[in-house]
């Protein structure tokens, strides 16, 4: 009896919290189906005249289709930074865990010490250095800094150290495999779950990045979605002529998060894996 | 440390009596060379995009740009100016107040949610776990844009309440709500993972002694995950000190309330890009980075018995 009452109360609390977490998504979904008049005049949490297709057309026509360019840029930055960061982290994480080389422990201690350096404090000096190297306002200004992922190295080191026995590598060496072969054909396959987690986190991190591209890029043809949508939002609020209207921005926001939600639902295990290793170890 | 790799015990017996010492030396050399080769890309990136920017920011923060003489060495003048600057102080006070209120609220919500999904094993609790975590997958920019619309008195659903969510008095709470919405689920998962790692037998014996579920949650489970709570709190405080994206995005809604010196990071950004004060901006960035960095380690050191990271 008592247990049942407690369970009802627990579910009521969870229900309320779920409404809080999901309400903005519901609003976004509903709002993306309205034209600009509907957005201002109808009930904000329920459907009015259905204009989703019109909104999508408007979205992809706005400023000669720049939204599609932003989507492509976001995807490109995410894939290149994600794959690059994962490759660099895999090599370093494996070396820290399994290869003995002079300076290894000092270097790893340095890495642990620097994990706490706040990324936002580095953006402005990185911008100034990049501008001296004439790399500002190029794709490299966004991609190169994103390749550095100390946390990914740490995570992969922990994973390799705990889950790949030395005997496995030794056996491959005795079979005559070189160090690089041992890495690619023995270690890499065994690292797969952790690699997917690091890849996922670095790709999403890059897709969501804002401060770095905001500072580095001024050519709107190079913008990722985050910087582009913010620029539209600014113009719409300021009431600039020819600016994207609210219904276009709302639809753009919906289109921008759909790939993330899909990736999130399909790869839940790996999301949680990354958070858990990071938190408990 | 692992000392197995080429120790004699692990060497194959079938290798025969051939001279092993030079071969082992060669193996060691090869291993060392491979090790360095493997960490080299990471080291290059670490130098280019972490150590070098840090050193560079520190260097230019020691100079001042003058009209007549150009760059002049000024030692700590920029830092002195930053510490005396009332606009910096306002920003620091704001992020401290924000952190002191928002952090316990959000960690509290995350803890309650984690305890609930740990205790309940219904289909709804699994759905709830997903629902609470989804906002974390949304870019901060887009989460903030969404809430910007929700707060709006013309298109938002709360306009009937007649509350101005972005007035001088309410905007900080509104920003806090965005951060809580976006990060509570993330922290819930971190705490939930810690709860899942606890031995279940402890609760059984407490139940035998007549403890209720609420008592078990508060008196047994919560203290046992204190290290995860400490880490979650630390990361939240680090995040709030660097508060930047949310206020920058909502700035056009009320530029009088969300000023160009609203938080230290917003101030540093505007100093650099609106006023070209690179030296002063670097000093503020460096100071903020140093405070966050040193603060994190003091916090971890002070709580090292509870924390698993130390």
Keywords for this structure?
heterodimer; A: 281 residues; mainly alpha; MetI-like fold; 15 helices; B: 310 residues; two-stranded antiparallel sheet; 2 strands
Plain-language structure description:
The complex is a heterodimer of chains A (281) and B (310). Chain A has a single domain, classed as MetI-like fold (Orthogonal Bundle). In chain A, 78% of the residues lie in helices and 0% in strands. Chain A contains 15 helices and no strands. Chain A has helices spanning 2-31, 36-41, 52-61, 66-98, 104-114, 119-132, 139-146, 150-163, 166-174, 179-190, 192-208, 211-216, 225-238, 246-266, 268-280. In chain A, helix 3 (52-61) packs across helix 14 and helix 13 packs antiparallel against helix 14. By secondary structure, chain B is mainly α. Chain B has twelve helices and two strands. In chain B, helix 9 runs antiparallel to helix 12 (278-302). Classes of the chains: A mainly alpha (281), B mainly alpha (310). The interface between A and B is large, with 105 and 105 residues.
Summarize the helices and strands and which ones pair or pack.
The complex is a heterodimer of chains A (281) and B (310).
Chain A: H1 2-31, H2 36-41, H3 52-61, H4 66-98, H5 104-114, H6 119-132, H7 139-146, H8 150-163, H9 166-174, H10 179-190, H11 192-208, H12 211-216, H13 225-238, H14 246-266, H15 268-280
Helix pairs in contact in A: 3-14, 4-7, 4-8, 4-11, 8-11, 9-10, 11-15, 13-14
Chain B: H1 21-61, E1 63-66, E2 70-73, H2 77-84, H3 86-119, H4 123-137, H5 140-151, H6 171-196, H7 201-208, H8 213-224, H9 226-241, H10 245-250, H11 264-273, H12 278-302
